[in-house]
Amino acid sequence: MTATPCVVDTSAWIEWLADTALGKRLGKQFPDRPQCIVPTIALIAKTDGID
């Protein structure tokens, strides 16, 4: 059985990248990389050095 892809909301990524308490809890629920769909805005924020 294959895992279903999952979109992780940008607000969750922001919390995770900022290393907040909420981000730490949310990060534990992120799917494995092959199943993780990342919104474009989170990719832009990370490549622009916002963390």
* Beta-strand fraction estimate: 5-15%
Helix content: 40-55%
Q: Termini distance?
A: 35 Å
Structural class: mainly alpha
The whole-number mean of residue pLDDT values reads 81
Give the quaternary arrangement of the chains.
Answer: single chain
Discrete helix count: 3
- The strand line-up of the biggest sheet is 1-2
Number of strands: 2
Radius of gyration: 11 Å
The main sheet comes to:
2 strands, parallel
Strand and helix order: EHHEH
Q: Give unreliable regions as ranges.
A: none
Overall form: flat
Verbal overview:
By secondary structure, the chain is mainly alpha-helical. The chain is built from three helices and two strands, in the order E-H-H-E-H. It has helices at 10-17, 21-27, 40-47, and strands spanning 6-7, 36-37. The radius of gyration is 11 Å and the shape is flat. The model has no long low-confidence stretch (mean pLDDT 81).
Q: Summed up, what is this model?
A:
By secondary structure, the protein is mainly alpha-helical. It has 3 helices and 2 strands, in the order E-H-H-E-H.
